[in-house]
Amino acid sequence: MFSVQALQAEGVTIFAAASLREATEALSEQYHALTDEQPVLVFASTSTVARQVSQGAPADVALLADQDWADWLIGQGVVSESTPFAGNRLVLVSASTHSLRQVTDLTDVLGGRVLAMAQAEAVPAGRYGKAALEYSGLWEELSPQIVQAANVRAALRFVERGEAPFGIGYASDLVALPDLHEVYSFAPDSHPPIVYVAAQTTPEGAEFMTFLQSDSAQEILQTWGFSPAPDQR
Hints:
Blueprint: H1 4-10, E1 13-17, H2 21-35, E2 40-44, H3 46-54, E3 61-64, H4 67-75, E4 83-87, E5 90-94, H5 106-110, E6 115-118, H6 124-135, H7 139-142, E7 146-149, H8 152-160, E8 166-170, H9 173-176, E9 181-185, E10 195-200, H10 206-212, H11 215-223
Parallel strand pairs: 1-2, 1-3, 6-7, 6-8
Antiparallel strand pairs: 3-10, 4-10, 5-8, 5-9
């Protein structure tokens, strides 16, 4: 049987979406400074985090980049509710600093090269990206040239390495990946709302959930390129 001291030393365990890596690490350090408790952090795509949590992974809090996956966890009976804590913008990125006047120009500038994005059927960033391309009438035309990765950060690594001239990611990714640049911002109404939600899976996660809504936590998130959650605007 664990002692109270041992449980406190172990710290709250947070499973988080890959796009939240740097922000969550910064949040973890602030939480440690405030509570003397060092969180344990695990990162993967939102879909992987949700599935792992549903299968009993030892998470106290799950941070997801998609309301649908949080609703799925609620439907599975794993959590009772979820709380929005941040938003984001969907952007087209490149290692080049030039910008596109309109997204339909992407066909010409891409040529026969590939476009990198997260998996469209499983990962939130991919789902948002597919919706935005469909909205612009580009999905069918460009889909043969799209390389889909396990998560948004993996997709943008293709762009960093020069293996893809363009990628679809979040505005916050550009803070964490300074060698990449925003070349186009997709209109908010071209895709489902980007809402980051937190779900508490054990009683041990309650304090971190409260911290996540604090002014200091929200300032950290905004420093890393996130916007307030839609219901916090």
